Amino acid sequence: MRFxxxxxxxxxxxGDGSTQRGAxxxxxxxxxxxxxxxxxxxxxxxxxxDRPVVDMQWWDGNELxxxxxxxxxxxxxxxxxxxxxxxxxxxxxxGAASAILxxxxxxxxxxxxIRLADRLMIPLIAVESDEPRSFAHALAVLLRSPQLTRAAQxxxxxxxxxxxxxxxxxxxxxxxxxxxxxxxxxxxxxxxxLGAAQPLPGSARLDLSVPQQLPVAGGTLLLQPVYGPAxxxxxxxxxxxxxxxxxxxxxxxxxxxxxxxxxxxxxLSEERLAAEQNARSRSQLLTELLERGxxxxxxxxxxxxxxxxxxxxxxxxxxxxxRGGDDDRDFVLMQFERVRRVLTAAGIEGTLVERPDGxxxxxxxxxxxxxxxxxxxxxxxxxxxxxxxxxxxxxxxIGRPHxxxxxIASTLSDARDAATLARTDRSxxxxxxxxxxxxxxxxxxxQGSDDLRAYAGSVLAxxxxxxxxxxxxxxxxxxxxxxxxxxxxxxxxxxxxxxxTRLRRIRDLLGVDLDDPDERLALSMACxxxxxxxxx
Length: 536
Known about the structure:
alpha+beta; 5-stranded mixed sheet
């Protein structure tokens, strides 16, 4: 005997009745977004999916009782004849039914049936189910008490997350199995950590550690912050794209994302702890090699070899820096594996070590690399940088090949010098080889002079104290762009008059003549010394 599917009176929740959160009237579109009907197919009448629905009842293909805002469920092993289905569509329209749901077999719809369903905007929905009665029972519960269905999903998700294995696969897989939703994990800056790429709209506010619901083409993007320790704020984001903008669908998904957050935070915390321990070990090992060179102890050599480091041969070093990376050790740690994958994909397979402001890597060959091989290596470095997210604002320096254990320190020192100059380079290339520095080497040597650094700082101090450093940035751009007001305006995305006004004020504050080549050279060198000093 079939269970009772007689419509039950709806009891509004306290506050504002059925419009309260969790008790809004569902629509056919909401049903189609639920996991229960995720595999259902709308055969016709798709423009009517915004119809409200409060209940369901069986329909045997004959006369219809009162069916206002109800889904009519027909179970058939053979399907309805077209004339009965079309008659049912007309009665459903007259009775203000929400949709007709065909469970089991259904014949091929003829064109007249499709046209009628489309004209009346009564959705015809096909569902394949081996247990139609169990399906209908779940549908009745969903319609009559949607909050119970949501509670059951929450309970199932919490139960799945009790596993001690809080890996991303377990956490995201639980959401997929319980609700049929595919989430992505983004780093704090919005770059991809796990899952499919998820472009962020311009309205995303990653500076705000709050859940966000963002309209995107064809639906809604949900962002759930993953919180770290209090001092670190948001360490990652759970992102979920929904093909719907319905409140019921959005609120369900948002609730489930918030339940995932503690498990994802715990995993990220464990990963960070492991990464920090590994990074500390690598950093200490590299420090030993850099400081002791050939006199390094046997134990250190054994540790390096056990770690897969190549100590002998010709080494070519690369330093990859982050603008502003000095205060983001967590970012350097958490992105280590991603950087390794990008370098490997670009053909750079070497020893990678975290540094305070980025990463250092060196590759080793048996023979001294030729000039052609060095140029090819430089292209691979550029390719790797291009594959990394633009918002990282990274730059790189490449050192000369050096041989032996002491060569590791030498090539990495070269690479850091080249990276220091690459940081001040406004071009898109952002990669410098130590051989390309030319007279810039003089700047690097001057940068180590306390007297010259003090002089550069005092000369430019009046500009650093006003307009949050805008005047200093304008002077740098003006000198880098051949003292052209037009090029400076284009580079800074400013109006020419704004640049002219700022230059006039710079002349007044510094008491200099920007038309004098000697004055321009002195200011240019001072700007470079100050900027390179800021990287250390």
